[in-house]
Specification:
The complex is a heterodimer. By secondary structure, chain A is mostly helical. Chain A is built from 12 helices and no strands. In chain A, helix 8 (170-201) runs antiparallel to helix 10. By secondary structure, chain B is of the alpha+beta class. Chain B is 31% helix and 20% strand. Chain B contains 17 helices and 21 strands. Chain B has helices at 2-27, 55-64, 113-124, 142-146, 175-178, 189-195, 247-255, 268-276, 307-316, 319-325, 355-364, 383-396, 408-415, 443-446, 464-474, 482-498, 522-525, and strands spanning 35-40, 69-71, 78-80, 83-88, 94-99, 156-160, 163-167, 209-215, 219-224, 238-243, 261-262, 284-288, 291-297, 330-332, 371-378, 399-406, 423-425, 431-432, 502-513, 518-519, 539-540. In chain B, strands 12, 13, 14, 15, 16, 17, 18 and 19 form an 8-stranded mixed β-sheet that branches. Chain B has a 5-stranded mixed β-sheet with strand order 8-9-10-1-11. In chain B, strand 6 (156-160) and strand 7 form a beta hairpin. The longest helix of chain B is centred in the N-terminal third of the chain and has 26 residues, at 2-27. Mean pLDDT of chain B is 90; it is low at 1-26. At the A-B interface, helix 2, helix 3, helix 5, helix 7 and helix 11 of A face helix 7 and helix 13 of B.
């Protein structure tokens, strides 16, 4: 177990360095000139040259990457070209909003997904089952920007129940969390349905019923814990899914998180921010997978880490 | 069409002239107080006047800071700001500014001539990385500062605490405009040194508003500067800028009374719906912009080295149709200068839309069978659609243009290479004047100085004779020569058209909205210089 953790941590560090290198290469190859971008359209050639020199953009590629990596190890993500602020500070100021949104999404996908799956399993092959599974199929296959805009239009613009985008209160959180969690809810409802059906067929369920337990006691006391096992292990992996979702969802709802920061940076080719957000996301995904692997044997003793 | 354009331009000029007369007359009657909410899509990058150069921060900086000169609200007419008075020497090379006394920075210290000198030396210092440093090129000693040899501008002298003398190395008729541009805002040294690179997040100026709170990615709150030197200004007690809101969402919020001004204007997707709704008739405001959208043709890349080919392109493009594509949010263009810019030639007719004549020109150039080329375009709506319209027009005369739809930075990079982009549609990247003077539409985008690697002269057009005429025009600093100077510029831009270096397509109009709660002359909501809105003069109806 101990050596396994050490090996995984080392692997993770290597993965992150690899990602930083790949991202750096890709951004380096973009035919945009950061110095000119900082200098703006009215700058003289001399001004552009000055900026290039001050930022080390005239250095060869490997030196630029080495400089970046050195900073990174010291916790310095660089300075945004266009926002003129430390990338670390920009990400830190927006991280709480993103974490809050993810939390909301996890709650949404669990509540929605598990309920839908449970109901579908209990009413197997009924009209309810079919319509719930169609809904989950829609959830799994619809792009988030479509769901987000639809929810905005119906519940904010037409019905006026929720604010039209923004951040601050619980009401602001509902629609973006739903949008982000809808995909996961679709997956979870299908997983919940099939594992519930499996579990309900098991002998111990029949025994529990036979010894006189009420239907809900069997369901929540015996069947649910067993059906939930595979799902809990999935939440860690979800973080990766969320990381790709937040860029869209935060932009649609004007949610001030790192997804919106990334989107604005991509549109304006603000390389240090793109690098920073990519690394933070990669870190979150690596961490999520790591935690999922760690938690799995705790939940199910049959799984062993090697 | 031509007539309506001119009538529109005349109406616009009339409206701005009227606004100028109305503002001072009303100013005394308007009570101060109240607040408003302005929304923007992108976060504000910086509020450092030496660095900020965006749509969002341009007018914010003007409200937080003052320069020696400014413009009358809603117009392009220069007026004194921190300078109470100024004199220009006969050779046009020495400007002496007399400063207002008793003007205080937000930190309570009085602004003096030393601050003017410090601010100009800061913005020109290469370490500041100011995108506007080049505007100060005519000040004596600029080159030494720009190259890092010196940190003091030889030409700027503090005569006494309220007098500053600025000597130029060459006569510069645009110098008063330069003193009105954001980059020459006066900043206090102690605050700049305290915050260093983060001064832009903690701005301290002498302006009508001060920054109270800035939550990154969410909002900025400006509050009224109680000690502002100009009586009765600003009108509002507080402005909240909310960022990160898509223009469509911003408009919905305005319609529901949750916001007052959509800073990015009315989004194209909602334009027809909103403008046709009688409910919003009085809330919509239209204004001219110092903007021209154009197609550049790289004169260094055959066959665009041939004048006939460039003329043919000018005659092939159906500008009326392009204006229709963007729902009439522009007026067709026939020359580089926009109609509200001094030097615009009202009598010039430009190249007519005439595909048959265009075909003949191609035949004369020996290209009767047409040719293949590429049209670069910024990949956000409506630019690709406009490019497709141009592509169809060119196909009519036998030119097969491939559309290269790319991110903005990539198009700009391609234009700055001598041999990469044969044609570029400038939409989304087009020139909007930094200050209302014709010279600003020449040097960087049509002059030889801009025709360099990484420059903005994407046509790579370099006519040394015109450059000489431009220098001569900018040497006419005597206010009595104003007419003569405008005439000189008019001639220069018509010569550019004779060489057909561009195909000018349209001049964008700006359409914005304000909530019912807000008052103020229409012109300040589409201010040509305090872009997009002159916040200082907006007032709230609910406190009247």
């Amino acid at each position: 177990m101990g050596s396994y953790v050490v090996r995984r941590v080392l692997q993770s560090v290597l993965i992150l360095i690899g990602i930083s290198f790949l991202t750096f290469v890709l951004l380096y190859l973009i035919p945009a000139d950061p110095a000119r971008q900082i200098a703006g359209r009215s700058a003289t050639v001399q001004t552009v040259e000055n900026i290039r020199e001050q930022l080390g953009l005239n250095l060869p590629f490997y030196q630029q990457y080495f400089r970046y990596l050195t900073g990174l190890i010291q916790g310095d993500l660089g300075r945004s070209y266009l926002q003129k602020t430390e990338v670390g500070a920009l990400i830190a100021s927006r991280l709480p909003a993103t974490l809050l949104l993810m939390l909301g999404a996890i709650v949404c996908e669990l509540v929605l997904g598990l309920t839908m799956g449970l109901v579908a399993a209990l009413r197997r092959n009924s009209a309810t089952d079919t319509s719930l599974m169609v809904l989950s199929f829609v959830g799994v296959s619809s792009p988030q920007f479509v769901i987000g805009i639809l929810l905005l239009y119906v519940f904010s613009v037409q019905l006026g129940w929720f604010p039209i985008g923004g951040y601050g209160t619980f009401m602001h959180m509902v629609l973006p969390s739903l949008t982000l969690g809808f995909l996961g809810a679709g997956w979870y409802s299908r997983m919940m349905r099939s594992s519930m059906i499996d579990v309900l067929r098991q002998d111990f369920i029949r025994t529990a019923r036979a010894k006189g337990l009420k239907r809900w006691q069997v369901l929540f006391g015996h069947a649910m814990p067993n059906a939930l096992l595979p799902i809990i292990a999935m939440i860690g992996i979800d973080i990766g899914l969320f990381m790709s979702g937040i860029v869209v969802v935060e932009s649609v709802f004007g949610w001030p998180g790192i997804g919106q920061l990334a989107w604005q940076a991509i549109q304006r080719v603000d390389i240090p921010i793109i690098m920073g957000v990519t690394l933070v996301s990669a870190f979150a995904i690596v961490l999520g997978n790591f935690l999922a692997d760690m938690i799995a044997p705790l939940i199910d003793p049959r799984i062993k880490l090697r | 069409m031509k007539k309506t354009v001119l009538a529109g331009a005349a109406a616009l000029l009339g409206a701005t002239a009227l606004a100028t007369m109305v503002v001072p007359a009303l100013a005394d009657d308007i009570k101060q107080g109240g607040s408003m909410i302005v929304t923007y899509k992108d976060d504000v990058s910086t509020l450092d006047p030496a660095i900020g150069y965006d749509w969002q921060n341009w007018s914010m900086i003007k409200s937080l800071f003052d320069g020696l000169m400014d413009y009358e609200p809603g117009t392009t007419n220069l007026m004194n700001d921190l300078a109470e008075d100024y004199t220009i020497s006969d050779d046009g090379k020495t400007f002496t500014f007399k400063l207002r006394e008793g003007v205080k920075f937000h930190n309570g210290r009085e602004m003096t001539a030393d601050d003017v000198k410090y601010s100009l030396e800061r913005v020109t210092n290469p370490k500041t990385q100011s995108p506007g440093a080049g505007f100060f090129g005519s000040i004596k000693g600029y080159d030494a500062v720009a190259s890092g040899e010196s940190e003091t501008l030889e030409g700027v002298t503090v005569v006494d605490p309220y007098t500053v003398k600025i000597e130029l190395s060459r006569p510069d008729a645009t110098f008063l405009h330069v003193m009105a541009i954001n980059f020459s805002s006066i900043v206090p040294k102690e605050a700049v040194e305290e915050w260093g690179a983060d001064f832009g997040k903690h701005p301290v100026g002498t302006g009508a508003f001060e920054l109270e709170d800035w939550t990154l990615g969410q909002h900025l709150i400006f509050t009224r500067n109680e000690d502002y030197w100009r009586d009765g200004v600003p009108k509002l007690d507080q402005i909240t800028f909310e960022v990160g809101q898509e223009p469509v969402v911003a408009l919905l919020r305005l319609q529901r009374g949750e916001a007052d001004i959509p800073g990015d204007g009315i989004p194209p997707a909602k334009f027809l719906e909103v403008t046709k709704d009688p409910q919003y008739k009085d809330m919509i405001i239209e204004g001219g912009q110092l903007h021209t959208g154009y197609v550049t043709m790289n004169v260094k890349m055959p066959p665009f080295d041939k004048l006939e080919v460039r003329k043919a392109v000018n005659m092939a493009i159906n500008k009326d149709r392009i204006v229709r594509i963007i729902n009439g949010r522009a007026v067709p263009a026939n020359q580089p200068l926009p109609p509200s810019m001094p030097g615009y030639d009202n009598d010039y007719e430009g190249y007519p839309y005439d595909p048959e004549a265009a075909k003949k020109l191609l035949e004369e150039a020996g290209l009767g069978d047409g040719f293949e080329t590429e049209l670069y375009v910024y990949n956000t709506d409506p630019n690709p659609r406009i490019a497709q319209s141009i592509q169809a027009d060119l196909a009519e005369i036998g030119i097969k243009a491939d559309i290269k739809s790319l991110a903005q930075a990539n198009v700009i990079a391609a234009g700055g290479e001598p041999d990469q982009a044969p044609m570029i549609w400038s939409g989304g990247m087009a020139w909007i004047a930094d200050f209302p003077d014709p010279s600003n539409f020449y040097g960087p985008i049509l002059g030889c100085d801009g025709a360099v690697k990484g420059g903005w002269n994407w046509s790579w057009y370099c006519n040394e004779e015109l450059d000489k005429q431009a220098t001569a025009a900018d040497s006419m600093t005597d206010p009595a020569q104003k007419e003569e100077r405008e005439e000189a510029w008019r001639k220069i831009f018509i010569s550019v058209m004779d060489d057909a270096a561009w195909a000018p397509v349209f001049h964008e109009q700006r359409f914005t909205m304000r909530s019912d709660r807000l008052g103020g002359p229409d012109a300040i909501f589409v201010d040509p210089v305090h872009i997009p809105v002159n916040y200082d003069y907006v007032w709230a109806k609910d406190v009247q």
